[in-house]
Amino acid sequence: MIKVENLTKSFGQLEVLKGISYEIQEKEVVCVIGPSGSGKSTFLRCINLLEEITDGAIYIEGVKVNDPKTDINLIRTEVGMVFQQFNLFPHMTVLENITMAPMQIRKLSKNDAEKLALELLDKVGLKEKAYNYPEQLSGGQQQRVAIARALAMKPKVMLFDEPTSALDPEMVKEVLDVMKQLAFEGMTMVVVTHEMGFAREVADRVVFMDGGYIVEQDKPESIFDAPKNERTKAFLGKVL
Amino acid sequence: MDIFDLRWDIIWNYRELFLRGLWVTIVLTICGYIGGIILGVLLGLGETSKKKWIYWPSKIYVDLFRGTPMLVQILIIHLAFIPAVFGQSFGFMVSGITALILNSAAYNAEIIRAGIQSIDKGQMEAARSLGLTHNQAMRKIILPQAFRRMIPPLGNEFIALLKDSSLVTVIAASDILYAAKVVAGAYQRFWEPYLVAAFMYLVLTYLVTKLIAYVEKRFSNSYNPRRKQKGGLGI
Ligand SMILES: Nc1ncnc2c1ncn2[C@@H]1O[C@H](COP(=O)(O)OP(=O)(O)OP(=O)(O)O)[C@@H](O)[C@H]1O
Ligand SMILES: [Mg+2]
User: Fold this and answer.
1) Cβ partners under 8 Å of residue A168, min gap 6
2) Residue ranges of the ABC transporter domain (chain A) (predicted)?
């Protein structure tokens, strides 16, 4: 469903992604792990063109995203993204955060959008917070709202960039539980994470990135219990 | 001349001149401010643009007008620019308002640029990742947040403009300061007319300060959850 072909990305002189090819199937959960600065976020951000692609190609359901003729805004409505820093809109209530895009883009009526938003809030366990403002919520709650906000566009894929890294330890679980639920329902997901337990339990595939390359990728059992590459071994030795 | 021997009656004799001056100052300031905001928004957006042909003209304009004295700008506009472009002068009001608009726009542009750029770039990314266009994201996400931060400095700019409007006296615009000068010249007395002028400006800036405080309060209240909650379903 997502096909990445020889993707490279440079910031000025600095080449961050050095030729990545990968294919993500529908309903697959892919966890991306690797040391800091290895290009995980950049890879994720290239998929919905938050970063301009230097070379190579990305196809989502056969549509080349880095084609000048492609409507990138349309692509982005199909690709949900959850950020490390939540990035909720502070001047809107939780409900408005979620209804804004469906009303603006999908042209849903206010009633329909709110109905949808309340359903999604129920799903992430925050229905009672609908009329609060983001600053009144804990980090874990904010991140769950951010997930609901992305889901409101009914995306075909969800991208998560270290969704629990900015959270206090006691809030990590509530967010991971929501993500597990999503995975269980068959959402296609690409998750950059340092939560190895989550990767092992939920991922269909684990991708290990280092120095702008995909060094190794396999089923979680294989990566975690029998890594083949030396760099993968060294990395896992440090984090497990 | 004795400060304790003030003759307020001469002010009373010229009350119509002062009232006219008050009116001129108010009209100049309000027109200058409104025009300055509109032009300032365009220039401020221009200064945040990635397109070079929009960015550079905006940037150069702002630097030119912030880098030169308003007094000089007023003289150039009244004596050189308007006659050169239109072949005639339209009087001090047109020249004065034009100068105030062009000058305050440069300062407002800086406020608007800074306000927009103070918003975390994650906000734009989150909005774009949902599929909003750049313009939609600006309208729904960035500008509403930036606007709240712009209110205090834009308020200060209003007060600064009100006081700077007295510079139009140099092209014989009959504002408050001009009235004071006329009276001073006629009677060779200086305390009374200039004190009255100062007092009139003081009252005006006081009123504007109150107005700004009200606007600030109003907009910070729309952030206040409790207020909005009442309108909601109350779940
Ligand atoms: N906008 C940018 N401009 C210049 N360099 C950048 C930019 N964004 C990222 N980089 C650089 O690209 C490299 C990869 O960054 P990236 O954020 O993709 O790493 P990461 O694997 O997500 O790391 P982390 O685990 O710390 O989030 C880093 O060296 C970083 O400094
Ligand atoms: Mg990262």
Assistant:
1) A139, A140
2) 2-236
In angstroms, the CA B22 to CA B27 distance is: 9
Which residues 6+ apart lie within 8 Å of B106 measured at CB? B40, B43, B61, B62, B64, B65, B66
Q: Are strands A29-33 and A188-192 parallel, antiparallel or unpaired?
A: parallel
Cβ contact, residue pair B126, A87, below 8 Å:
yes
- Asked if B191 and B1 touch (Cβ cutoff 8 Å), the reply is yes
Q: What is the pTM of this model?
A: 0.86
DSSP line for B146-180: HHHHHHHHHHHHHHHHHHHGGGGGGGT--SHHHHH
Mean pLDDT calculated for residue range B21-32: 97
pLDDT at A164: 96
What is the average pLDDT score of chain A?
96
From ligand 1's centre to the CA of B172, what distance in Å?
A: 61
Q: What is the largest CA-CA distance in chain A?
A: 55
- CA proximity to B198, closest of B7, B3, B25: B25
The nearest CA of chain A is from the CA of B110 a distance in Å of: 23
CB A28 within 8 A of CB A125: no
Closest CA relative to residue B26, chosen from B116, B93, B126, B95: B93
Q: For ligand 1, pick from A8, A33, A40, A162 the residue to mutate: most ligand atoms within 8 Å of CB.
A: A40
ipTM, 2 dp: 0.94
Q: Is the pLDDT of residue B229 over 90?
A: no
Structure-block tokens of residue B104: 């305050």
The residue with tokens 């096909």 is: A3
Give the angle B175-B179-B180 at the CA atoms, nearest 5°: 120
Q: Give the span between the Cα atoms of A83 and A100, in whole angstroms.
A: 18
Q: What tens digit of pLDDT does each residue of B109-134 get?
A: 999 999 999 999 999 999 999 999 99
The CA–CA distances, whole Å, from B85 to B77, B88, B89, B94, B101 equal 10, 8, 10, 13, 18
Atom number in ligand 1 closest to CA A11: 4
